[in-house]
Amino acid sequence: MTTSSHATSDSNGTIVRMQGINKWYGAYHALRDVDVQVASGERIVICGPSGSGKSTLVRTVNLLEPFQQGRLRVCGVEVDADEITRAARLAVNRRVGMVFQQFNLFPHMTVLQNLTVGPVWGAGVGRREALERAHLYLQRVGLMDQTHKHPAQLSGGQQQRVAIARTLCTRPQLVLFDEPTASLDPEMVSEVLQTMESLAGEGMTMMIVTHEMGFARRVADRMIFMDQGQIIETARPDDFFERPQSPRLQSFLGQLLSH
Amino acid sequence: MTTHFVRQTPIDPRAAPVAAIAAPVRWRRAWFPTPLMSLLSLLLLALFALFGWRFFQWAIVQAHWLGTSSEACPGDTGACWAFVIARWKPWLVGNYPSSQLWRAWTCFATFALFWTWVVRRSHAASLQRVLLGFILLPVAFFLLLIGGGPLPVVVPTRWGGLLLTLVVTLATFATALPIGLCLALGRRSRLPVARWLCGVFVEGMRSVPLLAVLFIAATLLPMFLSNGMNVDLFSRAVIAFALFNAALAAEVFRGGLQSVGRGQLEAATTVGLSDFAALRLIVLPQAVTAVVPALVNIMIAVIKETTLLSVIGVNDLLGAVENGAKSPDWIGESNILTSGHVFLALAYLTVCYGLSRYSRRLEVRR
Amino acid sequence: MSRAVFLERLPGYVGQAVLLAVVGWLVWRGVSNFQSNARALGLSAGYGFLHTQAGFQIAQSLIAFSPASSYLDAIIVAALNTLLVVALASVLSTLIALCIAFGRLAPPGIVRGASSIYVEVFRNIPLLLQILFWYFSAIALLPGVSESLEFGGVLLNNRGLFFPRLTLMHGALALDLPHVNGFDVGGGFALLPELMALTAGLSIYNSTFLAEIFRAGILSVPRGQSEAAASVGLSGVRAALLITLPQALRVALPAAGGQYQTLAKASSLAAAIGYPDIMQIVGGTVASQTSQALEAMTLVVLLYAAINLFIALVVGLANRRLQKREGR
Which end of chain B is more exposed for a tag (fewer CB within 10 A), N or C? Predict the structure, then answer.
């Protein structure tokens, strides 16, 4: 398998193609025969019980987790199961962004610096353009007056919105969200979800791991339900929530709706 | 276009695949992952080979093994192990009279047995018993080695070498720990006088070099004693060591005491324990258990510090080697002293490394 | 205060009074013993000797010094020599420690193994032994005066490392080059072999502890930080310099400051090989020549305490600036 670092999406607009992906943590079979295709502009929401492999799945897309078997193609970059080269990792991370559950903002930098460090030092974008992008996306997430604050001075919801702006500044083709509201106080969850909804409205390709089902129903083009490392059911939101066919999804939805 | 997919048969877990990469490729990736690492690795290997070969030549091939004076090691090449071997008695026991050597061997053997018992962690070796042993042993050794009564007296100035190092280390450890604990408790006391006195002592001791304290003990301390009292150099050195390391131990214990959460003390109060009982039964056991690895590190530091005794004229292991190289039998070539240094380096390395492995094992066990 | 509370606190008050009384009595006895012993030996007291002639030469001095200079000058020269070796050893050990720390964080292999061996070997051999080894091997290996190594204006032989010195001669700045003068070296500014041995020993010994401190600092940065750095397109060296190291520094700084203080105190081992630092000159030569050991050792203690305090202040300042940078 070779890696190409200049291609973007395939000619038929597929951003992510995972075929037969299998991953083991030591002896534990964490991802089993996973097949996923994500087209440009699609919004995928992945849900399931804890330990089902949802986070592992999206972390495999941007190469934070290696896999042992299968084929992976992200934004035109073919990735080898055996050895993930530094070139592949760089190529993928310059096209794919991630929003983490723990925000992971850089505590020793201001909000503005958090947003510009990736474009300036990673992608070689000029300082002026990086600043323009930073101001643009800060405005989009509604935090224009926080440019010179440090992350420690912001609330959880504000930090996560800064994290979203930080990802957008790198102009990704795909944004991965790994349980973005799970660490937030309830009153801040909605402000972050609103930001994500407006992002979806602009046509950004997104893969989202979340428990927020109301949000998922509004935003998703396709729902994926995972359990024990494998994809159990995939459907459009209406079918997913109203006509679940696999017994495990039925019991999962039943538990969700009961409280 | 999204199709509705439903998995009919679940996928059972499978065994992880054995890496199908050829052995040479795996070997290359493991040992030479990036160009920079490869370059550094080769450089280091070359350096190791070069120095290893030169050392091997010096220490084994060209070395002189037998002899009783500097004539056994002519010239400047090759180690003089004859020096090390011939003077085994001063290394081990210094000037201790030959007829009474059984007392020194008893001390060594007892300590070896005790240490084996501690390290094996048999059920009987609870923390209290071990600490008690560490306090009783030096007292017993001291009494046995000094003599008096039915045993002929052997003054500490005749002790030397490894025996002296062992006794000083144990005596320091045995005195510094209790004093350090008292100092740490004193710094947490509500009584301002106690807090202030302990604080001044600990901070003062920590801001001066050990060698300065030893110098003061060696030269100044006699002036503060009344005319009748005559404390010999050895005892003064041990006192200096004890007080200095007590300050270090105080800091270690302070960390341990702080690590016992407030909730523990609150719970102790609510079950009706007095302050003192809570301290003795709840706080201290947890605090001391938490800092055992740090205490072992203090012991390692004390072993290394005993080398400073040679600077003020006490005949410890390093001093014995230095004196040996200056004795009329052996004075001369520089490689004699160097051989002694290399031997000492290996000896200290073995002991201290062993202890640090033990300390790390204790930390992991937690 | 009610009667009951007072009775409860009484043992505390009594205890403190007793403690003060005991300590006070010990101090009083010690002082009176000292005074009577000093009188019996005919020793003088006080610091008057500071302005009298020293009467001895110091092999290395950063300012002009001769036997005609006063004891106070001698003490200043000694303090400067200590600061010199502490500064040199601090810089050198920091550089070595950074390399070793990164070596220990490398993937398992020869580099990591070599770094670990370095740390274990040089941490467990006593510092004094290492210094003595450097002193005796370094001297043995360097060539004699007549076969001095020379590069630039610099001479290297077993009497030391000699640099050219800027001096005022006949009202103009001139370069005083070192030159071989029979069995000695004249002119220039001498770095003694004692200084070289002391610096080598101190640097290597302390670099092992500093390497562990730096490594712990780097490991303390949460994994999410490097993942976030990767996700915005930063990698490898850039991510390390911009994201990981600044945060690692904040954690490592207090512990590193303590290690530099230890280094400053350990420099006192100069007395074992005769390097003219505070311990050797003030605690040794001055104390024995004036027979005023109390005053001399007091000066020694105060000087080292001052150096430690200075290091603590610098580290505290740096720490505060780093914390401000994170908006705390």
Answer: N
